[in-house]
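Here is the promised in-class demo. Please do not try to memorize the tokens; focus on the logic of going from shape to residues.
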């Protein structure tokens, strides 16, 4: 199976690649590397990595394994497919992150709703690239295969045999009989080299115990008149949900999820026909989810026990956010799917119905899950999770433990996750259902009063909404208000929705048949769909334009005190259950749990929701939308500047009320942001380089985002940019940016040298690469050549893929209207290996026989599938579908052919192909030539040290 280990260049490494006379040749290529950072973190690995000096990582013993029967050592050849080193933050980073998360939810902060990309998260809160490089090198030295590095630079994944993992972390892996199945887990705490103790926090994946879907009741649908169930209740259709929870007014206003996205995570493949039949049955417009298998991990196929969960999560989230784009991310372990969804920032709303009681969770897993949730929030993602289906004794369906007590469900108990509990409709003598169904199989007439969900007596086993106090997480400052226990612990759930399969169940399709389902796992995707509608509403109202809402919990608790009409307070019922499994010994069967009451309680949280009232309150209560009017004017230090000069822009705000606005002002040229400035004393000032503007007239706009007291405002100003007084450009040479030899192929990175090539020095800031920077452009045979980097003496460009082969091509460089040309001959392939100053391939300059190593090339020519010039593969492209050279590629080490494990253009790179290869076991030791041959054309040799 191909490895999906992504590129591991560091800024420092790139600056020293290539001949010393041209160190700047790599300055802009850096910006196309997803793992690189202009704000490199301080390295925390100090001193040599000595395997004999080790520290133990506590909290990694799995309670489910310890409660099972130890069956002895695991087969040493067993493959552990996905083990992850979770990297911890420095104390300074932790404090900075906590402050940022608070600021992102504070309308008075300049960071309010300013979400980070994974790369920005890496630059601020991740590990240094040097640390990652050393960590990857150490893993390879242990004969483990690195399979992935987080975009956020906060984890590194690998695989290996049980024997290799045991040796690397000084543990024994045992088999255990637990929960009626055979599992494996570490029998002792792992250890790591002492050099890593400031960097590695947790190790995930040392066992194959997984999170569970909440226990639910699923029944075959027996249709009666009016869709009445055999137990006398009703079966809920999408339109019933919209009436009961007051979503319909949003649909009537055009708020249906359009332009929004949700990611659902699971651990089974699905049958799209189930989702299609569900939508057809209820007359919902066809809207298939996008299905993504976590790259590099095996496909589990259809898992019968997990398929109903996946189906209901996809169907119900789409039943509420009917026109939203839904992505289903899955792997054999839902934890890996969630990790991928956060690392790739797949969508602003994440729905997860899997969980595990805290008492059966290793402390290390709780820490790593919270780390994921915090990153998700920082990226603007709202994470919804089920609170569990076995009441306050969440472990009752778990292993044969001797301590049968109170416990809450992870990840719903994490402060950065919104936990959704359960309610039951309680009609009393009211008339809340129509005697006939609509064409969409709905019959609800209005909101129906609710009580706490607890069908334990009816079902003959614990069936109730999870809730209680966490043993892992302290009470966050925002979890306050009437009814919130003064227990110092994070309490769950936060909200609740209907969850009874008996009264009344949700209709869904699974396995090709209609069924009825209940449990808190219907609440999580339903609430996720509601949050997507909220995102659309706020976007349409101009409150937010990019991303989502991050952690909505602070706002929910604030609204509960100032906008009570947004919630239905559930004051009756409980989540008390018999904590004793049928196999338990010496267990007291007295029900344990909590009772509902006025305001917040540990059964239904803040209650269920009136979604229209909640959405309306979001923009009027608690100060999320400014109320006052602000006018803005913009002035500049000059109205005409040279392109190598600068101008200072000042936006002045004036409140009609005479108050002082706060917040920030964004200055833009068209759709391109020029920068953001904080409002100080009613004004925001920004210096803008002329290089960022076009030659001639420019209309620069300023947009004030508003604050807790004032609405936003905007203004614009005209700035004219003139050519600087410089001579015409001149080109002296052009060569491969890898080999620095005069060899050229379509798609290749080329370094162009000369004089007066640009008035400024600037690097591309994003991909696709721009074709014009600071009035500088390049073209090959008249076709625009994307720019990586510009400076007076050098340009880095990409040869367009459409350049004709075996013919002389003309390169034209233009700077402020003046041009220079040179010619070169383009052939099908001209491979060059990226090397460091000593001529060794990067990033792996040395490798042991039989180990996996990585190098990068350019000049590989045409790709399959084709990739547009200047573009990088989508981050959602599976590893096996990444573009690769159309010509045959071989690689030799010391003259011995090396097996190629993976070849392709990685996410985030342009014009660069990654090759993962196995160093032949017969390769000579010492400094050996590495040669890549593409379509019969050999690259200049790089020198690999074979160990």
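The designed amino acids, position by position:
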């Amino acid at each position: 199976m191909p490895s999906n280990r992504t590129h591991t260049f560091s800024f420092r490494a790139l600056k020293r690649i290539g001949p010393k006379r041209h160190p700047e040749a790599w300055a802009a290529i850096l910006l196309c590397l997803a793992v690189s950072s202009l704000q490199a973190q301080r390295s925390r690995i100090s001193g040599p990595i000595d395997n004999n000096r080790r520290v133990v990582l506590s909290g990694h013993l799995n309670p489910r394994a310890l409660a099972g029967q130890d069956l002895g050592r695991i087969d040493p050849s067993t493959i552990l497919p996905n083990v992850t080193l979770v990297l911890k933050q420095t104390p300074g980073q932790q404090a900075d992150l906590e402050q940022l998360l608070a600021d992102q939810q504070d309308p008075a902060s300049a960071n309010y709703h300013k979400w980070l990309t994974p790369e920005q998260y890496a630059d601020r809160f991740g590990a240094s690239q040097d640390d990652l490089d050393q960590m990857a090198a150490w893993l390879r030295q242990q004969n483990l295969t690195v399979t992935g590095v987080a975009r956020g630079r906060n984890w590194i994944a690998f695989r290996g045999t049980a024997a290799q993992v045991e040796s690397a972390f000084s543990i024994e892996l045992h088999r255990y009989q637990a929960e009626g199945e055979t599992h494996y887990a570490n029998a002792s705490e792992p250890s790591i080299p002492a050099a890593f103790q400031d960097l590695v926090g947790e190790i995930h994946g040392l066992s194959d115990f997984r999170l569970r879907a909440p226990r639910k009741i699923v029944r075959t649908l027996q249709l009666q008149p009016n869709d009445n169930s055999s137990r006398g209740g009703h079966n809920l259709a999408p339109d019933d949900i919209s009436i009961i929870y007051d979503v319909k007014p949003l649909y009537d206003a055009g708020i249906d999820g359009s332009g929004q996205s949700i990611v659902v995570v699971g651990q089974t493949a699905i049958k799209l026909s189930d989702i299609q039949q569900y939508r057809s049955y209820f007359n919902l417009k066809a809207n298939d989810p996008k299905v993504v298998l976590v790259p590099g991990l095996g496909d589990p196929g259809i898992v019968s026990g997990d398929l109903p969960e996946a189906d209901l999560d996809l169907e119900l989230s789409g039943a509420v956010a009917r026109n939203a784009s839904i992505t289903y991310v899955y792997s054999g372990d839902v934890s890996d799917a969630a990790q991928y969804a956060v690392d790739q920032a797949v969508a602003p709303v994440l729905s997860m119905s899997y969980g595990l009681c805290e008492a059966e969770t290793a402390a290390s897993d709780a820490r790593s899950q919270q780390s994921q949730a915090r990153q998700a929030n920082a990226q603007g993602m709202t994470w919804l999770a089920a609170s569990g289906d076995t009441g306050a004794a969440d472990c009752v369906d778990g292993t044969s433990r001797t301590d049968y007590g109170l416990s809450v469900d992870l990840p719903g108990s994490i402060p950065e996750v919104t936990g959704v509990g359960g309610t039951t409709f309680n009609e009393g003598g009211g008339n809340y259902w129509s005697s006939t169904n609509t064409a969409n199989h709905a019959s609800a007439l209005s909101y129906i009063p609710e009580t706490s969900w607890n069908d334990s007596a009816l079902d003959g086993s614990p069936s109730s909404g999870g809730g209680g106090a966490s043993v892992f997480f302290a009470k966050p400052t925002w979890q306050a208000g009437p009814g919130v226990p003064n227990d110092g612990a994070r309490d769950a759930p936060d909200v609740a929705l209907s969850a009874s399969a008996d009264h009344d169940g949700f209709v869904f399709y699974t396995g090709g048949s209609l069924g009825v389902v209940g449990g808190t796992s219907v609440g999580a995707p339903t609430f996720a769909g509601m949050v997507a509608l909220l995102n659309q509403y706020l976007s349409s109202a101009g409150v937010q334009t990019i991303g989502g809402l991050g952690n909505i919990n602070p706002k929910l608790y604030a609204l509960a005190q100032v906008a009570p009409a947004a919630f239905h307070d559930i004051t009756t019922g409980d989540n008390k259950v018999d904590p004793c499994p049928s196999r338990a010994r010496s267990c007291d069967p007295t029900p344990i749990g909590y009772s509902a009451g006025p305001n917040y309680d540990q059964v239904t949280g803040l209650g269920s929701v009136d979604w229209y009232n909640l959405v309306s309150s979001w923009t009027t209560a608690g100060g999320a939308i400014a109320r006052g009017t602000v006018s803005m004017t913009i002035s500049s230090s000059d109205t005409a500047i040279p392109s190598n000069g600068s101008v200072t822009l000042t936006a002045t705000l004036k409140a009609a009320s005479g108050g002082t606005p706060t917040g920030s002002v964004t200055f833009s040229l068209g759709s391109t942001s020029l920068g953001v400035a904080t409002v100080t004393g009613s004004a925001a000032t920004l210096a803008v380089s002329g290089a960022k503007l076009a030659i001639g007239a420019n209309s620069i706009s300023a947009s004030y985002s508003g604050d807790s007291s004032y609405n936003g405002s905007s203004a614009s100003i005209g700035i004219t940019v003139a050519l600087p007084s410089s001579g015409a450009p001149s080109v002296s040479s052009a060569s491969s940016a890898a080999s620095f030899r005069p060899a050229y192929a379509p798609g290749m990175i080329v370094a162009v040298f000369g004089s007066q090539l640009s008035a400024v020095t600037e690097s591309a800031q994003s991909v696709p690469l721009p074709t014009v920077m600071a009035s500088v452009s390049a073209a090959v045979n008249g076709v625009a050549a994307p720019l990586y980097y510009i400076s007076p003496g050098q340009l880095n460009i990409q040869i367009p893929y459409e350049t004709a082969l075996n013919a002389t091509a003309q390169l034209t460089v233009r700077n402020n209207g003046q041009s220079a040309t040179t010619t070169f001959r383009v052939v099908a392939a001209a491979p060059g290996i990226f090397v460091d100053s000593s001529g060794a391939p990067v990033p792996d300059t040395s490798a042991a026989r039989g180990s996996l190593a990585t190098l990068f090339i350019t000049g590989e020519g045409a790709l399959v599938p084709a990739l547009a010039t200047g573009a990088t593969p989508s981050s959602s492209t599976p590893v096996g579908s990444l573009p690769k050279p159309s010509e045959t590629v071989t690689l030799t080490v010391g003259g011995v052919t090396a097996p190629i494990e993976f070849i392709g253009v990685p996410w985030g790179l342009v014009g660069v192909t990654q090759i993962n290869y196995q160093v032949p076991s017969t390769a000579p030791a010492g400094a050996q030539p590495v040669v890549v041959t593409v379509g019969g054309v050999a690259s200049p040799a790089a020198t690999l040290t074979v160990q």
